[in-house]
Write a structure and sequence with these properties.
globular; three-stranded antiparallel β-sheet; 5 helices; mainly alpha; 146 residues
């Protein structure tokens, strides 16, 4: 879990400039915990606040190994209160900085790339071409790149 802890610490540094929700009494969870869970949920296919809460519920044992979670599981409302007021352009800028901070490596690394063609995705009648999927994996950083 040393890598996960290092990623969490880097995220804390990079995202520390994003302002917390405006109401002090609603801050019971760490902002870094909420950001990490939210990002992991989206990477896993989550599309909303409830998906973030459900992701955390399903992965709680794993998440508690590297997140503080001092008040337990943030609710869907907690995710909404934190993410909704953040300007998406600002969040994107900080997210890019965080990703750049974790993928810096002085030596070259091998990035396995895998491609697949989805059977049955071609539809001649509707003029849809076959669907190709490509994924890249940074094993050093344990990160799906695309």
């Amino acid at each position: 879990m040393a890598n996960a802890t290092a990623l969490t610490e880097k995220m804390s540094l990079v995202f520390s400039e994003i302002e917390h929700p405006p109401v002090e009494r609603t801050r019971v969870h760490l902002l870094t915990d909420i950001f990490i869970i939210g990002i992991l949920s989206v990477i896993a296919g989550g599309k909303g606040w409830e998906d973030m809460e459900n992701y955390e519920l399903s992965k709680y044992d794993w998440l508690e190994q590297f997140l503080a979670l001092p008040e337990g599981i943030p609710s869907a409302d907690s995710f909404r209160r934190v993410f909704k007021p953040i300007n998406p352009k600002v969040f994107e800028r900080w997210f890019r900085r965080w990703v750049e901070s974790i993928v810096e490596a002085p030596e070259a690394q091998v990035i396995p790339i895998d491609g697949k063609t989805l059977n049955g995705s071609y539809d001649r009648e509707q003029g849809k071409s076959v669907l190709h999927l490509v994924s890249a994996w940074s094993s050093e950083h344990r990160l799906i790149l695309g």
